[in-house]
Structure formats: structure tokens, C-alpha cells
Fold this protein.
Amino acid sequence: MAKELLTDVSVRNAKPTDKDLRLNDSSSLYLLLKPNGAKWWRFDYTINGKRKTLSLGTYPSTTLKDVRNKADEARNLVANGIDPSDTRKTIKAQQQIITENTKRLDAGLPLIDSFQALALEWFDKKMLDKSDSHQKRTKGLLERDIFAWLGNRPIAEIKAPELLEVLRRIESRNAIETAHRALQTCGQIFRYAEATGRVERDITQALKGALTSVNGGNFSSMTDPQQVSILLKAIDIYSGSFVVKSALQLAPLVFVRPSELRQAEWQHIDLETKKWRYLVTKTQTQHIVQLSKQAVEILTNLYPLTGNGLFVFPSARTPDGSRAMSDVALLAALRRMGFDKSEMSVHGFRAMARTILDEVLGFRPDFIEHQLAHVVRDPNGRAYNRTAHLSERHKMMQSWADYLDTLKNS
């Protein structure tokens, strides 16, 4: 190391002149004494063939000992081919981001370069020319299923396994199609982030094949509102049995399992309180279906025809109503209307409701799962009582029925 020429005393006693005065210390480190008495520490260096100067503070706030340590750090960076000026700019930018993010957290805004910030930026640039329903469904999906876990994570730090964990959380509530749609949306966001230099690559490419196949044993269903509109209109003009038509009209309003719909008994239905209570065939537990005014109207119109028998939807071959409708009656009606097995199944009314209630109408997933008669557990792992959220579920069922009416009338 070159000899250090300055001392604390010489720096403290240095007097200004009518022009800049340079007082050299060790190699390339010096004190620049200004005519107004200001004392600036400077360090000269050469990198990539260019001569540069780095400011290291002022005296006395930066002591001689401190500035020599800073100069040593700068020399080490230069020796490794790193520009100290660039490093300082990077640190300053990071500090500015930290300060800004603190303000954003207090204001409830997404953090800079977080997944949520990039997602909203992508949405504003790529989604505003899409239909209102598509925009609402996409934003709702992000807000309900992605932002809570990844929203404030720096997008460049998110790894494929972390995103997969979030997607499998969606899968766990049997929303297979929603999980695939979430992966597709996240892929568009990551590709936008890659194009704008915020990430190095689209991590969703590594997740191809990681989710459960949409067609892997699932019942066919219509989840696109336009398709649902066509289906509902076809049911309303169905020219077959009135009992079968009534069952098909009721199926999307209650979205119970096909066997539970066919074997519904009048004794379990209370049209005054708008409730249908029955035993779930799969879990052998009591379940309550909140009936919308549309569902009550269908049952009221059917009662004069089948109300004297046991079953709401009796078999056409049993005049006294002692046997329930066969398991092929509803399916055959769908086929007669022109919907093949790859388009719609009777069980598909459940997937229809689950998907659209979640993605389009934005109801809480646990409300939907309760109404599907799935086991829903509290934070302690205990199964919720069958009466959980009854008032909220009634509002949901009525909103669902009203939404289906808008589709039929569109």
C-alpha cells in the first residue's frame, strides 16, 4: 500500500485558498478542500479503460479512518472488475425501494416488483380489451387464490415449487379447472415479467403436467356462462316428461348429487322455510339445501302431480310414486336435447355451480364447499356443523338462481 500522508491534525487544520486544493493521502485517495471551507473526500480509479472519481463523504462527518476503510473497499471492487459507482447506485436503488415499500404497506398498496404489482401491471396492459366477465373472472381468481400467498413476494424470488403449492391448494377443494386456469394466468404474468426484465424466465413452464388432468376421471360439465345459457334455455323448452323437465330445471339450482336429486322425498322438503333436509349418500351425514324462490316455484308447480307419493321425481313406470326416477332418465333427456357425454353430465351441474360461484360471482370457497356437502374443517381440524353459514348460504343460493335467470334471458 502507498504511504498514507494525511493525519487527523493536518486534515483538521487545513485552510482553504481561493481555489480548489487537493491534499493527497494513500493511493488515489485525497481530500478536496473547497474555497468555502468544505472538505470532500475523493477516490480516483480506472475501470474498463475509463478514469472515474468516487465521492466518499465529507469531513468531519466522515473521519480519516472511515474514509480509508471505504477506499480499501472500493479498491477491492475495482480489483475484481466491479465498478464501485455501480455498486453504490444499486444499493441506493435498493434503499429507495425499501423506503417506498414501507409507504406502500402502510397505504395497503402492492410492493414494488412484487407478484401482485406485476400482475396488476399486466392486467392493465393486456386485459382491458377483454370482456367485462373475463376481466372480472381473472381478477377475482388472482385476488382470491393467488395474492394471499404470493402477492407481496418479489416475483424474481418465486420458485416453481412455491407456485405449485398455491395451485394445489386450489386443487384440494376439487376446483381442478380453476387450478389450471390459475396456472395459465400466472404463466402470462411471468412471461410479461420476463419480457420487461423483472424475471429471468417463466417458471410456469416447469409445472406442465404437475396438476391433475382436467379430464382425469372428472364428470363432463359446462362452466362457460355462454354454454350454460344455451343449456338452460334447452331445458326450459324440453318437450319430454314434465317430471324429468322439472328435475333438470331444479338440478342447477340445488347442485346436489344425481342420486340425491332423483331420490328426493317430499317429506324432507319444507317449502315454507325454503329448506330441503336429507341424508348425504356419500358421507351418511345430514345436509341442508337452501332453496331459492325459483327452486320453490318449480317444486310448487310439481307438487300437484307427484305430491301424493313418496318421491318428488317418481319413476314413470310406477304410477303410485313408490319408486324414484331411474338413473338414466335425466341423462337420456340431456342426450335428446343434443348434449353428448363429452359436453354435459347430470353430475356436471355441481362442477358448473362450484366453478362459476367461485370465479364469476366471487363467493367464498368454504360457503360453496358447505353447499356441495363436502367436509369443511375449521382451523383446528374439526368438521364444521352442517348448519354452518346457513344465512350466507341462502344468500348465495338466491344470487346463484338470479344469475342463472340472467343467463337464460340473455
